[in-house]
Amino acid sequence: MKRKTFDMVLTAGGAVLVVVLLVAGGLLMWGASFANNSVHSQLVSQKIFFPAAGSAALASPEIGPYLNQYAGQQLVTGTQAETYANHFIGVHLTEIAAGKTYAQVSAASLADPTNATLKAEAQTLFQGNTLRGLLLNAYAFSVFGMIALIAGIASFVLAGVMLVLTMLGMAHFRRVPEDAEFPKTIEGAHSVKVPVAA
Description:
This protein is mainly alpha-helical. It has one domain. Helix content is about 70%, strand content about 0%. The chain has helices at about 5-45, 55-60, 65, 80-95, 100-110, 115-175. Helix 4 packs antiparallel against helix 6 and helix 5 runs antiparallel to helix 6.
């Protein structure tokens, strides 16, 4: 094979890879922006605020260490949503019905339909777990956005590296003599045939 042909194939492949990485980077950055904007706008519209600094809720050893950093702030990010879901709503849910789950309390309520306490506990647990689940979904979506952002940056960096390598390949392509072969043959070398046993 001619060395120029080999270099041209590698250079063209590098150029295609640069374009693919740039497109992938652009799509990943768009995905990251979409995820972060969606999470932010959805959380802002809920108007959830962390308890104010010095409030009784933040004095709890199960809540305070996690929520103090956000005291009085509006919940607007995925990280805040995860903290609020696990260390505020989650803690309060364990205080209902002696720590029983919604499924347990609901089953007990269905078995005793006249028990107003069980019915109220089941409804509270259902609502609390629903809100907690929605907040954790917002957190998960924000993590996907962060992963897309990191992958997008990595794609752009790799595209830059490939662009430099492609340009070096083009420079090498121009310097290679027309008659150069690849792989390079050594003049005067003789091929030796090795007999193969049948």
